[in-house]
């Protein structure tokens, strides 16, 4: 991923720009590539979010909300080696396929225990 794209996504994450502004900036970052040039898939609703929640003993430890329009880019920012919970691998490619197909609701639900503490990982679209 280019440095420009990473900076655009950081600005979006920090709330400095809107989803629409991020899309416009991403298009400008790749002038030869437009959204219309990509293979046609079911266009996700821009008002929906991919949500990732990690809890420890019912206390939220991570709460990530990625607009569906940027889910592919956002998920690819996560290091693949950190996508293991209690020995269960979270398959990002499969999640991206579900998003492209327009799947809604819960995609991943993992309950794990480590050193006597209960952990939960939930990934869903709403």
Order of helices and strands: HHEEHEEHEE
Global outline: elongated
Q: Return the average pLDDT rounded to an integer.
A: 78
The largest pleated sheet is described as: 4 strands, antiparallel
Overall number of structural domains:
2
Strands side by side in the biggest sheet: 2-1-6-5
> Which band does the percent of strand residues land in?
25-35%
Textual characterization of the structure:
It is a single chain. The protein is α+β, with helices and mostly antiparallel strands and 126 residues long. The protein folds into two domains: 1-40, no CATH class; 41-126, Chitinase A, domain 3. 29% of the residues lie in helices and 32% in strands. It is built from four helices and six strands. The protein has helices spanning 3-13, 19-29, 71-75, 92-100, and strands at 49-56, 59-67, 84-85, 88-89, 105-114, 117-125. The strands form two sheets. It has a four-stranded antiparallel β-sheet with strand order 2-1-6-5, covered by helices on one side. The chain has a two-stranded antiparallel sheet with strand order 3-4. Strand 5 (105-114) and strand 6 (117-125) form a beta hairpin. The chain is elongated, with a radius of gyration of 16 Å. The model is unreliable at 37-42 (pLDDT under 50).
